[in-house]
Design goal:
Protein name: TetR/AcrR family transcriptional regulator
Distance between the termini: 53 Å
DNA-binding region: 44-63, 248-267
Structural class: mainly alpha
Domain HTH tetR-type: 21-81, 225-285
Helix content: 55-70%
Oligomer: single chain
Radius of gyration: 23 Å
InterPro entries: Homeodomain-like_sf (IPR009057), HTH-type_TetR-like_transc_reg (IPR050109), HTH_TetR (IPR001647)
Region (Disordered): 1-22
Number of helices: 19
Shape: globular
Largest sheet: none
Length: 406
C-alpha cells in the first residue's frame, strides 16, 4: 500500500482503487492454500490478510472469524470438485464415456487446485460436527458420481464394491495433494487418468484373503503396562480423533490413567509426545520394509510384501499412520526436517522397486504412483472403517497392487 507523505502525494489512481468483486473468494482461496500447506492452527488471520493485500479489519468484513474462513475454504474446495463432476456428468452417455468425462474433470480441477487439496484431506477434522457432515455429504455425492456409472459398466460388482473402487479412484486423483513432486500438468493428468482407470477395472471378487503377519488384536491377552507406552498409545488416538491442537496433556493423561503432572516425567511437552509418535511410526515402517525386502527374491515380490505389511500397519493402528501423515507440520522445525527425510527415503525405496518392475515409468512418474498407492491404505481404509477381516484386507491389497502394477 502506498503511504501519504508531504513530499510525495498518493497517485490519484491509488486513492480511488476499488475493491475487486471477487475479494471474498480470493480470501478463501488464500486461506485454503495456507491451511493446506501449514495447517489450520499455524496460520494467523493477519497473515492471510497480508497475503491478499488487505488489513485484518478489512478481512473481517468478509469473514467474522478464522473458523468461518476454514469452513468456507473447506466447503468451496470440496464443492469445486463436486461442481466439476456434476458439470461433466451426462446421464445418457455410455457408462465408460461418462466415467471418463468425470475422471478428466476431477483430475483437471485437482491439478489446478493442487495446493489446497490437503485442506479437505486433513484439516477438515477441525470442523464442527455439523459442518464436517456437510463436507462428508459432498464426498458421498462425489463418490456416487463414479459409483453409479461404474455399476452400469460392471454389473458383476456389488454395491459395496462399486463404492470401494470409486473411493479408490478418487484417492488416486487426490494423491497429488499429499506431495509436491514436480511434473508437467499434462503428464500428471495422463498418469492419473490411466491409474484411476486401472483401479476401476480392479477385480475385487478375485482378491484372495490377505496373508497377514500382524498379530490378531483380538488374540492379545496382555496389556501394555509401561506408562510411557500407554501415554504414547493414547496420545496417538487422541491426536487422530481431535487433531494435535485440540488435544491436551490433561486428556492424554486421563486416558492413560495418569495425572497431568506425571505425564511430564515421561515427555517434557506435548510436542515431544507427537515427535515420539512419529519416530515410532517411522520405526515400524522401517522394520516392515526390512522384513519384506529380506524375504523377497525379486522387486515385484518385494512390492507385494511391502503392500501387505503396510496394510497390516494401517489396519492394526490406523491412528498412528493418520497422525504420521496429517500432523507433521506441528513438529518442531528440526524434528520436522529429519522426519520428512525419513518419509522421503521410505517412499524412494518403493520408487526404486517400482521403477525396476515398470521401466516405462520415469522416476518422477513412479513417485506419483507410489504416493497414489500409499494413500489408498488411509483413504479407502477409512471407508472400510479399517475392518481387520481378511476379506477387507485382501481387497485393500488388490487395490493397492493395482495402483502399483497397473
Amino acid at each position: 500500500m502506498a503511504q501519504t507523505t508531504r513530499s510525495r502525494p498518493v497517485p490519484t489512481d491509488a486513492a480511488v482503487r476499488r475493491r475487486p468483486k471477487d475479494r471474498k473468494a480470493q480470501i478463501a482461496l488464500t486461506a485454503a492454500q495456507a491451511f493446506s500447506e501449514r495447517g489450520y492452527h499455524a496460520v494467523g488471520v493477519d497473515e492471510i490478510a497480508a497475503a491478499v493485500g488487505i488489513s485484518g479489519p478489512a478481512l473481517y468484513r468478509h469473514f467474522p472469524n478464522k473458523y468461518a474462513l476454514l469452513l468456507q475454504a473447506a466447503l468451496s474446495t470440496v464443492g469445486s470438485l463436486r461442481a466439476a463432476a456434476d458439470a461433466a456428468a451426462d446421464p445418457v452417455a455410455a457408462p465408460a464415456d461418462q466415467l471418463d468425462r468425470i475422471l478428466r474433470a476431477l483430475i483437471t480441477t485437482t491439478v489446478e487446485h493442487r495446493r489446497t487439496g490437503g485442506l479437505y484431506r486433513w484439516e477438515g477434522r477441525y470442523l464442527q460436527p455439523a459442518d464436517r457432515e456437510l463436507m462428508r455429504a459432498d464426498f458421498r455425492a462425489l463418490n456416487e458420481r463414479l459409483a453409479t456409472p461404474l455399476g452400469r459398466l460392471r454389473p458383476d460388482l456389488s454395491r459395496r464394491d462399486t463404492t470401494i473402487l470409486a473411493a479408490a479412484a478418487l484417492s488416486v486423483v487426490g494423491s497429488i495433494t499429499a506431495h509436491r513432486t514436480a511434473l508437467a500438468n499434462r503428464r500428471i493428468e495422463k498418469l492419473l487418468l490411466a491409474t484411476a482407470w486401472d483401479v476401476l477395472h480392479c477385480d475385487l471378487a478375485a482378491a484372495p484373503p490377505a496373508e497377514s503377519t500382524a498379530p490378531d488384536p483380538a488374540a492379545r491377552g496382555l496389556a501394555v503396562t509401561s506408562k510411557r507406552e500407554l501415554l504414547l498409545g493414547e496420545a496417538m488416538k487422541i491426536f487422530h480423533a481431535q487433531g494435535y491442537h485440540e488435544s491436551s496433556i490433561e486428556e492424554i493423561g486421563a486416558a492413560a490413567g495418569i495425572n497431568a503432572s506425571s505425564v511430564y516425567r515421561h515427555f517434557p511437552s506435548k510436542a515431544e509426545l507427537l515427535a515420539a509418535g512419529f519416530h515410532r511410526a517411522a520405526d515400524r515402517l522401517a522394520v516392515a520394509t526390512d522384513e519384506a525386502l529380506g524375504a523377497s527374491t525379486g522387486p515385484e515380490e518385494a512390492l507385494r510384501r511391502l503392500s501387505a505389511a503396510y496394510i497390516d500397519l494401517a489396519f492394526a493402528r490406523p491412528e498412528v499412520l493418520s497422525v504420521y501423515f496429517a500432523e507433521i507440520g506441528n513438529l518442531p522445525s528440526g524434528e520436522r526436517t529429519n522426519l520428512r527425510n525419513v518419509q522421503r527415503l521410505h517412499v524412494e525405496e518403493w520408487v526404486h522397486l517400482l521403477g525396476t518392475v515398470r521401466p516405462e515409468l520415469s522416476p518422477v512418474e513412479a513417485r506419483f504412483v507410489v504416493h497414489a498407492a500409499l494413500g489408498q491404505a488411509l483413504d479407502v481404509g477409512r471407508l472400510m472403517r479399517f475392518d481387520i477381516d481378511a476379506r477387507s484386507r485382501g481387497q485393500m491389497r488388490a487395490v493397492m497392487l493395482t495402483v502399483l502394477l497397473g
